[in-house]
Write a structure and sequence with these properties.
alpha/beta, four-stranded mixed beta sheet, 29% helix, 23% strand, globular
Amino acid sequence: MTTALHKVPTRPVLKLAGHGHPKPDTAAPVRRACSADGEQANNTTATTLAIQQLVSAFQPSFDRMHVLRDLVIPMYEGSAVPTARFDVALVCEAGVYLFEVKGWRNAVVYRKTAAQALPRWFLRQNGHSLAREVKDPAWQCGRKTTHLRSLLPPDLRVQYFVLLPFEGVELQGVMPSVVITPQDLPYIARVARNNGRTEQGYPMLDDDAIDRTLRLLTGLQGNLTVDDHMRNSREKSAQAPVRPAHPGVLKLQ
């Protein structure tokens, strides 16, 4: 069963480059709505670099691709923070790919797991022996992606990843498969293309479906801004650090 979002040909295929919709300008589709706060400078640089890497990796595999930067959506009722922010949302024929971008550099990232306890993530700068605990980026992105999926058509592929765009980051131990580096991006793009062609549950999107997907995402954001989300996050930080329970099962992919 499909929704009105999709037009499904008998055999979903990509359009050849040079036919149909032209290749987009790599700079034009990027929404620049990032806060100018000094404390966000590193994340801003990381996101800019991540977008360049994503465009370079995905564009050869897809005839049409759009990048939304700083997509802010309302969260479910009762959420500790009433908004969620996706650093990068990439829309292509294969669906929607969401990226949580972390500006870690020249550091070792690892996590500790224990039975019946949530994983704890740590970051240790190269040349230093002490590590500091950081928020679990996979859990953060997975929670808000699960919510976003509930607001979109069920046959629209929505996947998420945690992207570490800077060089000099070492991942130690067993990490979730959603945590990736720039070296993984070409493979992710090829898998996205192949999955879109072969998996019947998630049909490829034609031009009209891509346009409707973009309208759905921007419609969810409405008038919400990054500043709104940052203010909501600061208000949450001022309260007791209680992690909200998510309504329903959290799907990693």
